[in-house]
Design brief:
- The protein has about 50 residues and is an all-alpha fold.
- It has one domain (about 5-50).
- Helices cover about 85% and strands about 0% of the residues.
- It has helices at about 5-25, 30-50.
- Helix 1 (about 5-25) runs antiparallel to helix 2 (about 30-50).
- It is elongated and about 35 Å long.
């Protein structure tokens, strides 16, 4: 696994945790949280597979 792939594996869950934490605090709506999680997973997957 390259350094870039390792970075993606580490940062994507962090982004998801922050999105869920913001949703629980009432800062993000449910749709915004879902979009943020899906976008981060899609971007990470595409970048991971193209590395």
């Amino acid at each position: 696994m390259t350094d870039a792939q390792t970075g993606l594996v580490v940062t994507t869950p962090i982004i998801i945790v922050f999105a869920v934490a913001l949703w629980r605090m009432g800062v993000l709506r449910t749709t915004g949280t879902v979009v943020a999680v899906l976008a981060s997973v899609a971007i990470a997957a595409s970048l991971f597979l193209t590395q």
